[in-house]
Design goal:
Bound molecules: manganese (II) ion
Strand content: 15-25%
Number of domains: 2
Number of helices: 11
CATH class of the largest domain: Alpha Beta
Number of strands: 27
Helix content: 10-25%
Structural class: alpha+beta
CATH superfamily of the largest domain: Fumarylacetoacetase-like, C-terminal domain
Length: 429
């Protein structure tokens, strides 16, 4: 079907790790995502690969010499492809490594998963055109999309220091906000706290300062993808965002999933990518035959909410919405190329967020801002609770799956984060 496929994608492949062969697992042998983990929170950091409900210590196999994910990410795509092939072969049923490698497995629920790599820089794009349109309508009913949107992949530089891994908790942020009926702003806990359903691209090989990455090479600089929840304080955002864009509304916490699903693992789910004929076509530097042929990636996304009341009642989380990365307006290659067209240098481990990934339907919105239409219409949950924005104790879980007929389904694992009550105001002063 496409030249990106190889023996590691064979849907018939089975692993001697039995849990990898179950229908429900996110981590069959066709996935093989990378994480940084340790035995206990203080244990030595290791590079692991997920297989079913286990994690494989990759360095112990002798296939790599580093325990540092950023060093691995700097490897060439050819070297990474060879590593994937060797891991796939060693974990396959009947492999000669079965007895030896079995000693290098740990149950995932018995280890500590860390941020997968050092994230030096974080950029958040705005590729979700349905999100941009819906949010734009709230502010500008006559012109929801600004004139630049279909020409330039919009983004802003975010903050890397507050990015945490799934399981992250954070206090409701304080911020300066000004309500519509108030004359002056007040410092108080955000009362319009929201999530954003996003994917993140983790950069592999970097580029030298001053040397742009062309479309034809762009994906060679993408190591893989994670889920990203770009928590947002909408009331802070509304007051501060003009003229320089998001600042404190976004930098108090961002949560990513621990497993990096490699671009190679995503190969079976590639799809043609074009803008509608009635839209401006990408400028030549953002266009390539490969991007048109297979620039899209089918990733089905879900947002789940688990409130304190649900947990107290022993209820599971409730799904709020579903969308797909195929509905984004710009591709991974276009984000990488645009980011570097001025010579900006990307480094291994840099994170590029896609922006909120909403679909065209009202129930496909990737934020509460959209689902509650700017806080005007509360959602009613199955247990009778209502939400316009997040309450203290709310946990948000993002999930992602890739499915296609003729291929093994792969998933990303959960990206979970939880809102704690604001710190006592006295502590802020
Ligand atoms: Mn965002």
């Amino acid at each position: 079907m496409n030249e990106l496929l190889n023996a590691t994608h064979d849907p018939q492949l089975r692993s001697w790790v039995a849990s990898a062969n179950g229908a429900g697992t996110d981590f069959p042998i066709q996935n093989l995502p990378f994480a940084t983990y340790s035995q206990g929170p203080q244990g030595a950091r290791k590079i692991g690969v997920a297989i079913g409900d286990q994690v494989l210590d990759v360095r112990a196999t002798g296939l790599i010499e580093t325990s540092d994910m950023n060093a691995l990410m700097a490897q060439s795509p050819a070297a990474m492809s060879a590593l994937r092939a060797a891991i796939s072969q060693g974990l396959s049923e009947g492999s000669a490594q079965h007895a030896e490698w079995a000693q290098f497995l740990s149950p995932q629920d018995a280890v500590t998963l860390h941020l997968p790599c050092r994230i030096g820089d974080y950029t958040d794009f705005y590729t979700g055109i349905h999100h941009a349109t819906t949010v734009g309508k709230l502010f500008r009913p006559d012109e929801p999309l600004l004139p630049n949107y279909k020409w330039v992949p919009i983004g802003y530089h975010g903050r890397a220091s507050s990015i945490g891994v799934s399981g992250q908790t954070f206090h409701r942020p304080m911020g300066q906000t000004k309500g519509p009926k108030e004359d002056v702003p007040v410092l108080r806990p955000s009362h319009r706290l929201d999530y954003e359903l996003e994917l993140g691209v983790l950069v592999g090989q970097g580029n030298a300062l001053g040397e742009p990455i062309a479309m034809g090479e762009a994906e060679a600089h993408a190591f893989g993808m994670v889920l990203l929840n770009d928590w947002s304080a909408r009331d802070v955002q509304a007051w501060e965002y003009q003229p320089l864009g998001p600042f404190l509304a976004k930098n108090f916490a961002s949560t990513i999933s621990p497993w990096i699903v490699t671009m190679e693992a995503l190969a079976p789910f590639r799809a043609p990518f074009t803008h509608p004929e009635s839209d401006p076509q990408p400028l030549p530097y953002l266009d390539s035959p490969a991007n048109r042929k297979q620039g899209g990636i089918g990733v089905a996304l879900e947002v789940w909410l688990h409130t304190q009341a649900m947990r107290d009642a022993g209820l599971g989380p409730e799904r709020l919405s579903q969308s797909n990365f195929l509905d984004a307006y710009w591709t991974v290659a276009q984000m990488l190329t645009h980011h570097t067209v001025n010579g900006c240098n990307l480094q291994p481990g840099d994170l590029l967020g896609t922006g909120t990934l909403s679909g065209p339907g009202p129930d496909q919105a990737g934020s509460l801002l959209e689902l509650s239409q700017g806080g005007k219409n509360a959602l009613t949950l199955a247990n009778g609770e209502t939400r316009t924005f997040l309450e203290d104790g709310d946990a948000v879980i993002l999930r992602a799956l890739c499915e296609r007929n003729g291929f093994r389904r792969i998933g990303f694992g959960d990206c979970r984060g939880q809102v704690l009550a604001a710190r006592a105001q006295a502590a802020v002063g």
